[in-house]
Write a structure and sequence with these properties.
Strand content: 15-25%
Helix content: 40-55%
CATH architecture: 2-Layer Sandwich
Structural class: alpha/beta
Number of strands: 6
Number of domains: 1
CATH topology: Nucleotidyltransferase, domain 5
Length: 197
């Protein structure tokens, strides 16, 4: 397998997005049901979104937390519901693995929003690095490991608007789902002993 990929090579690949059900739980009951569903799984895909800053020195709080498992993705609108205790308990549960890319800043932002002790998190970039892979972003990892291209068009959109657009929901769900897919591929590579030369 190639250990690196160019932007030109990624551009040639077929585009793919999350194909399952996307949920946006807002009430206490919906959030509890979402966490109950996610707790059935040992490994969850994880990501967050924050409204981008276009002014120097301005910092926005994390607006969205995405968790994906099975055929469902859950988008928790933290700018509306804050960080509910049931969600914090899930993020602090070391028996449930949460996987994402470049998660250090995501976790810092979540803890800043509402203090908790993150546990059970794995950064796919760390595993990819151990396997000698050079391009560590979600997009190049999806291209290298799965032969697909994921869209980054919504990345700098406003994640605090009253209602998320269909494109935003799909983008956010895809980022959490792809982290999980990448993690599974990397684990298979580790099992086959494909370490860095």
């Amino acid at each position: 397998m190639n250990k690196s990929i160019t932007k030109e090579e990624i551009a040639e690949l077929p585009i793919k997005a999350f194909g399952g059900k996307i949920n946006v739980p807002l009430t206490e009951n919906e959030i509890r049901q979402a966490v109950d569903y996610l707790r059935q799984y040992q490994v969850l895909g994880f990501d967050t979104e924050t409204r981008p800053n276009f002014r120097k020195g301005q910092h926005n709080s994390v607006a969205l937390l995405q968790l994906s498992a099975g055929n469902e993705a859950f988008l928790f609108r933290l700018n509306k519901v804050k960080l509910p205790n049931v969600v914090k308990q899930l993020l602090s549960d070391e028996s449930i693995i949460k996987v994402g890319a470049a998660i250090h800043d995501d976790l810092k932002a979540l803890v800043k929003l509402s203090p908790f002790q993150p546990a059970g998190f794995i950064d796919v970039q760390t595993i990819a690095k151990q396997l000698g892979i050079e391009n560590l972003g979600l997009r190049p990892l999806a291209a290298l490991l799965m032969g697909i291209k994921i869209s980054k068009a919504q990345q700098t959109s406003n994640w605090e608007i009253p209602y998320l657009t269909a494109a935003q929901k799909l983008y956010a769900a895809t980022d959490a789902w792809i982290s999980l897919e990448i993690y599974q591929r990397l684990c298979e590579m580790q099992q086959r002993g494909e370490m860095a030369e």
